[in-house]
C-alpha cells in the first residue's frame, strides 16, 4: 500500500497494490498495522455503503458534531465518484479549503478523512456504490452538514447544480459561513496525537 498526504496533510490517499492474473485480481483493502503506522491509530466501529443509480447524484456535505464526530475511510465498490472533504476545523491553516479527487472501483484508491471535515461526493457513473468505515457510530442526534454548492468553498463539482440529483435534506443544509465553531484545530490535533 502507498500512503500519500494530500494538499491538506491530514487527508491521506491510500493506494492498495493490485495483483492480477488470468483469474482476475486481488487487492488488500485494509491493513491495521500499516494504517496505524502511516495514517492514524484509530478504531473502526461501523461500515456503511451507499449506492446511487444515476450519474450526477450528490450526497453531502456531511459530518457528525462532537461528541459523536467520526473519521471515515472511503472507497468505491462500483462505478466512480468525485469525492470531496472540506476542512471545518476553526484555527486550521486549511479552514474552508477542500480536497477533491476521483475515486473509482478499478483503482481501489481510498481516502482517509479525519474528524473535523465535511464529506460529500458526486457520482460519475451509473450504479456507483461507495463504502466507508467509521471511527464512531452514526448518530441522528449529531448528524449535520453544510451546503454542497456553497460558492465560498470553491468546489468544482462535475455536475451543473441545476442538474444535480440531491435529497431534500441535503438541499436544505446551511451555508458554510453559518456553521458554528464545532471543531477546534488544536484540540483535534491533540486528540489524534493522544490516541
From TrEMBL:
One of its GO terms (molecular function) is dTDP-4-dehydrorhamnose 3,5-epimerase activity. InterPro entries: RmlC-like (IPR000888), RmlC-like_jellyroll (IPR014710), RmlC_Cupin_sf (IPR011051). Pfam families: dTDP_sugar_isom. One of its GO terms (cellular component) is cytosol. GO terms for biological process: dTDP-rhamnose biosynthetic process; polysaccharide biosynthetic process. This is Uncharacterized protein. It comes from Rotaria socialis.
